Amino acid sequence: MRKDGKQVLREHIIPKDPKTPKQLAYRMRFGMVNRCLSPLNKAIKKGFLKTDNAYRKEISKALSNAVLGEYPNYKMDYSKIQVAEGKIQLPTFVTAEVNEKMCVATFKWNPQLIFDTYPGRKDDQVNIVCLNKAIPEAVNFINAAKRSAGSATIDLSSKMIINEKWYTKDLHFWLYLSRFDLTQNSDSVYVKYEME
């Protein structure tokens, strides 16, 4: 390091690490959030078109809003995670069913535009993000359907690792829309699903 044009050396001080209960709790919480959101990194970057450092911001939000339980028994509430952000209006009444034997998920929604104050078109693209937290792996199903279709079926085995240890209880889904020219997105919605 230089100061007033002269080379100055500074003594390296090893930081104290008392490992207080508060520090240990925060480290465990932070590590869990990082592990849980890491597979969603690419999906979040694609979903947040106009936000710099979107992934880091989602980590920060998850630390505040998506961690359940007390140290050391933390759990992630995936319904509090957002994988996309934008002004396009989301469809209403989004539902999903998963057929474990066929490895497919079917999503349904109301295709009608409801709000005059939010942009939206019949040809908006429906995008689905699927996370298998056990592997962990997340995949995007971009342009799975148009808003006007009212439903989409995705073949999970086409993009995900499916093996004998595959359980639907480990799956989490989000749905969001993109404008036809990919210049705008909607917010994402976490989709709870039923088993067929």
**How does the major sheet shape up?**
4 strands, mixed
**N-to-C SSE string, H for helix and E for strand:** EEHHHEEEEEEEEEE
Number of helices: 3
Q: From the helix content, strand content and strand pairing, which structural class follows?
A: alpha+beta
**CA-CA gap between termini:** 65 Å
- What is the helical fraction, as a range of percent? 10-25%
Strand content: 25-35%
Q: What oligomeric assembly is this protein in?
A: single chain
Number of strands: 12
Contiguous low-pLDDT stretches (5 residues minimum) are: none
Report on the structure:
With 196 residues, this protein is α+β, with helices and mostly antiparallel strands. It is built from 3 helices and 12 strands. The chain has helices spanning 21-37, 41-47, 54-65; strands spanning 2-3, 6-7, 67-68, 75-76, 92-99, 104-110, 125-132, 137-146, 151-155, 171-178, 189-191, 193-195. Helix 1 packs across helix 3 (54-65). The longest helix has 17 residues, at 21-37.
How is the secondary structure organized here?
Blueprint: E1 2-3, E2 6-7, H1 21-37, H2 41-47, H3 54-65, E3 67-68, E4 75-76, E5 92-99, E6 104-110, E7 125-132, E8 137-146, E9 151-155, E10 171-178, E11 189-191, E12 193-195
Parallel strand pairs: 5-12
Antiparallel strand pairs: 1-2, 3-4, 5-6, 6-9, 7-8, 7-10, 10-11
